[in-house]
Fold this sequence. Notes:
three-stranded antiparallel sheet, 18 helices, globular
Amino acid sequence: MTDHEAAPTHPDRRLSTKEAAELLGVKPETVYAYVSRGQLSSRREPGGRGSTFDAKEVAALARRNRREPSGSSGIGGELSVRTRITLIDKDRYFFRGVDATELAARHSYEEIAEWLWTGRLRPGVTFAAPDASVAVARRAVDALPEHSGPTDRLRVATIAAATADPLRFDLSQDAVLGTARTLIPTLVAALPPLRRDHRDEGPLARRLWGRLTGRAPDAASVRVLDTALGLLIDHDLAASTLAVRVAASARAHPYAAVSAGLGVLEGPLHGAASGLAHRLLLDVLDQGSAAPVVADELRAGRRIPGLGHRLYPGEDPRARALFALLEEVPDAAPALAAAHDVVATTARHAPLHANVDLALAVLTVSSGMPASAGETVFAVARTAGWIAHALEEYEERPLRMRPSGRYVGARPPQPLPR
Length: 418
């Protein structure tokens, strides 16, 4: 036998702490660490002196520990989470094994969301928001101060929609899917429209368009927005997605899980990055050249927004797909030229490629949208991905997302403070 193997046990019997430790190849103290992190469940038998453990559960954990590299089990090292949703491989990424850029080119945001959630396509599907949910979300959003940002509004709308759903604690797959299909259009409907003649009908991208710009929608521009939503729907375990999975691991309902994701998204290093690229492009258009603008950014010690991505050695495939579509939008030509100028100018001192934030900025600048519009697009799009991860996490053992802290403070015992 290897260090992590033991003699087979009857699957229905309970194991003592010592037997569980032997099967796992760890010390007894580590068995209780697994319990505290939600990786094992324990039970104290009536009249017994110690905890007992389910033999099948212990055997399954032992198999995972043998299969996974050191550190991926949550006992230390970098956290690794098994997922069937998104794979990022070199300069491509895949949704349930299908090229994500091809999906976004051929299917609507709603259809891609259904693919992520269920593994099935529903051609022509659209999401509808209940009147009661929209009414309470709009009232909550309308009560916010004028300076509130888009993520503020979406987070408040999410919480308000939750209060209108008495069945929100039902975490069965059908119930969560029902929540997802109504929450996303509710978030869009809760945002104030920028056109008096705007109507909430048709695909989600068209409904969202009227809340991002006062310009009349045209087919080519709405197609770019719909494709952007589909491309941004998920991107593996980004910081906001990890927050959603932690919430779902604690069995928070889907509204609360989405709210956790929105809280992280608001950080300047995540969802707000496209706003910085938007302002950069406006400066380039105003100056007539990227050179002085890039020089000012470098002189101030700032990184150039919209360039580079830690997961892609080359160009971000999402940016590549959006740039190709933006070529077909005549109004996008100046902003697109400015973006290419930024990339070419920066390439003189750093081999950085465009990322999706720069492509989003071209869309928002050329469509007369505010700098915060990219953050709204990102948040609405990613909500569907968060729901997919929540659904996946609800199938895992509760509270498994519990890494251990490595204490580096003063060693006890210390004297009482005075």
